[in-house]
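PROTOCOL LOG
Step 1. Enter all chains and additional molecules of the complex.
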Amino acid sequence: MSSEPNLLSVEGLAVRYGAIEAVRGASLSVRKGEIVTLLGANGAGKSSILNAIMGLVPVAGGRVVLEGTDVAGEPPEKIVRRGMTLTPEGRHVFANLTVAENLLIGAASRRDRAEVEATRADMLELFPILAERRDQLAGTLSGGEQQMLAIARSMMSSPKIVLLDEPSLGLAPQIVDTIFELIVRLRDRGATILLVEQNVELALEIADRGYVLATGAIALEGSARELGRSGDVERAYMGAH
Amino acid sequence: MDLIVQQTVNALSLGGTYALLALGLAMVFSVLGLINFAHGELMTMTGYAMYFALSAGMPFEVAVLLGILAAMATAMLMERIAFRPVRNAGTATMLLTSFAVSTILHMLFQNLISARPKALPVPEWMVGALNIAGFDIGVIQLISISATALLLFALTIFLRRSTLGIAMRAAALDFPVTRLMGINANMVISTAFAISGLLAGVAGVLWLAQRGSVDPLMGFLPVLKAFIAVVLGGLGSLSGAVLGGFVLAFIEVGLRAFLPEDFLPFRESIALALVILLLLVRPEGLLGRKDAVR
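Step 2. Run joint prediction.
Step 3. Record the structure below.
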């Protein structure tokens, strides 16, 4: 796996909100077929990194290289068309649209109807509950179902890499387990995933590699196994406070 | 009975015009958070385009088409030239920009054309009335009701069935996440303005057909009513805007028809008082969401 070139590499990324420096020169990389997790305490800058990678907030410095092209500063819709997408924190499904419409809109960047149909069939097989609820308004789904819809909607653009922001947020433990099993199945089907999580234990369980962020900079990186064994992750977390 | 049917037709016809205008305002508001005070000038633009087309000897139907196209083009140019550069500057800036656009267009109409009304002759076949099931119904009212119904139907199909239409509904709910679907923000906003221009253009034609003239301030009153309709229906709700337009028209026409003569001079104030009463009962508007307070 280490012979694969980087699909995404973030080099010296900086994000500022006015005078506040939320991210100070963070670097990380994701290779094809990997699950890489980005850990860190609340307010460490994890979501800021994902939002900056996607062009949702301005990049104040550094590079975001997707398949050899620097995409920093491009608008989100263009980055999606290049093959990278984000499942935002808090799910953000379109509440007044049906499940089917949410999925359809997820494929808005694609032209080939037959291929879109194939992805849709694939997603409905992976998330059978969505097939059952296809004509229901997304706002009426449970939290776990909404998270599944949000992930399936992202996959509808047939991305080369998906950024998942806190998929476990606000969900009951069994539901979280189900969601994480689905993430692993997505990877087994060839997806590449950058996962931001608060649930350190679960994230390291499914990830290949991980980074720990503290006060806007990468404090620690390594294979998931190394990070899981050492007490360094906890120490990095404590350092953030 | 006769009176009730007549007044219902009047209210439907007036309500249709309000609804088209309100829907145009609501479309732009839903994707941009902007209340476009220059919306009325789109109607006026339709009027002048028709006036020049008719003066050049073109048939009425062609003038109507050109009038509607002029409103659409103006709406899209407004967005491109005036609103896009200040899009990220906040809603107050956009609101002031729309005042400026409105004033500039108003001045241009006044100085380049005329402050006085220009006559817009309506073809004779539109002036009469038809006898339907024993009731005399004005041709213009009939056209107005059918045009509104047709447009609302077509727009519903567009918003429900086409990817761009679904994208517009998604953008109204959550604009940043819509961009994460790979949907071009400029495209969605341009389309919203084009549709608002189309609706204002058609409303303009219907309004002009009843008035028979165009002047620089023509759009002011109907669009003021449309603002009221949008708020009454629930700011941000498209179906609410349509409902608000019809409710307002029924209140106005009902008061005009059934108020005792001594009260007639106060009918506008009474109508607005009724609207305020409705809003006191439902502050979020008839179809507005409670959480949609901006």
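Step 4. Note key features.
The mean pLDDT of chain A is 92.
Chain A touches chain B at residues 54, 56, 75-77, 80-81, 85-86, 88, 92, 94-97, 101, 104-106, 108-110, 153-154, 157 (CB under 8 Å).
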